[in-house]
Design goal:
Radius of gyration: 17 Å
Distance between the termini: 30 Å
Number of helices: 3
Helix content: over 70%
Order of helices and strands: HHH
Low-confidence stretches: none
Oligomer: single chain
Structural class: mainly alpha
């Protein structure tokens, strides 16, 4: 069972860069790269959502509930990012 994460401030790109310079530990660098990769993947997912949603509306019409729920998740995540 997964536990909910505590509330925390989002790490900015500037903070990630500073952490990279301050720490030579490869594990810290790997963690920073993971955060950056996650943000890039979220951007790709957002683009795929847009094209899928548009294709659905053009071919079928209306909204697909799963796409609407995905949009809500992405919107919440985007709002967290600086």
């Amino acid at each position: 069972m997964t536990r909910e994460l505590p509330s925390f401030d989002t790490v900015t790109k500037k903070e990630l860069r500073a952490l990279w310079r301050q720490h030579a530990d490869p594990d810290i660098h790997r963690l920073i790269l993971e955060v950056v990769r996650y943000r890039q993947v979220m951007k790709e997912i957002d683009e795929l959502y847009k094209s899928t949603h548009q294709a659905w509306r053009d071919q079928v019409g209306g909204n697909l509930i799963a796409l609407h729920m995905l949009l809500q998740i992405m919107t919440i995540e985007r709002q967290r990012l600086p």
